Amino acid sequence: MPSRISGGMRNPPAPMPTCDECARSWCCCFYGGGCDEVSDKELKMRDAVSAAARGNDYKGLPQAISVINKEFGNPAKLKAACNMWAPADDGPESKGLLFMTALKWAAQHGNVEMCQLLLKSGANLHTSSYFDPKNRGRFRPSGGLQPLGRAAQYGHTACAKFLVEAGADPNYRDFSGDSAADLAGKEGRQECQKYLWSVMENANDKQQRPEVQSAEMERD
C-alpha cells in the first residue's frame, strides 16, 4: 500500500477496510481505481474534477478535464478522475454519503450539462459504493445511493429524466430498500416522485410484455 494517497483529499478513515468486490484496499475504489499507480500530481488533477462538480462549477469542470487529457491523453485516467470520491457534508447518518463521486455532486445540483460531460468522460452512472453506517462505516462497493437517487432527493426532475434516459434504473433500490421515487417522496419532491413512478411503471410493463406475448403464442 503506497503512503502517497492524499492528493488534496481527506485521508481515508482507519482502520482501512477492504472492498467486498475486489478484496483490495478500498482506496482502489475511493480514488477511481489504481491508487498504487497515481502520483500526488495526478491526484490533485483528479481532485480538481471533484471540486468543480462539488462546487457546481461548470466552467471549472471542462478545464479540469482538459488538464488531465492534455497531461495523459489516456481515457482511463480521465475515467478514474470522474469516478473518484469527494468529501460530502451530510454526516455519518446520511445513508453512507460521507463521500460522493463527481456525478453524484452534479446530480445533487441538478446540473444536466455537467452530468452530460461527466458521463461522456467516463463517469459511472450506476455507482453505488458507500460506507455502511449500520456496520461501523464498512466500505461497500454496491447498495448505496446512485446518482439518480441523489437527483431525486433534491427534486431535480429534469436531471432525473436525463439520467433515466441515459440508462439509470428507476427500479433500483438501495440497502434500505428505497427507490429514487421513495427518496423523492421522503423529501417532499412530489413532481420528481410522480415522474419516477411513471418511468418505474413503464419499465415494469416492458419486462412483463415478453411474458404476455409468450403466453399468447402458447395458447395459439
SSE order and pairing:
Layout lengths: L26 H4 L9 H15 L5 H13 L2 H8 L2 E3 L11 E3 H8 L2 H9 L9 E3 L5 E3 L6 H7 L3 H10 L13 H7 L3 H30 L1
Antiparallel strand pairs: 1-2, 3-4
What oligomeric state do these chains adopt? single chain
Please bin the fraction of helical residues. Answer: 40-55%
SSE sequence, one letter per element: HHHHEEHHEEHHHH
Strands, count: 4
Please tell me what the overall shape is: globular
Please tell me about this protein's structure.
There is one protein chain. This protein has ten helices and four strands. Residues 1-21, 91-96 and 212-217 have low confidence and may be disordered. The strands form two sheets. It has a two-stranded antiparallel ribbon with strand order 1-2. Strands 3-4 form a two-stranded antiparallel sheet. β3 and β4 (138-140) form a beta hairpin. By secondary structure, it is mostly helical. The relative contact order is 0.10. The longest helix is centred in the C-terminal third of the chain and has 30 residues, at 190-219.
Keywords for this structure?
single chain; 50% helix; 4 strands; globular; two-stranded antiparallel sheet
Concise summary:
This protein has 220 residues and is mainly α.
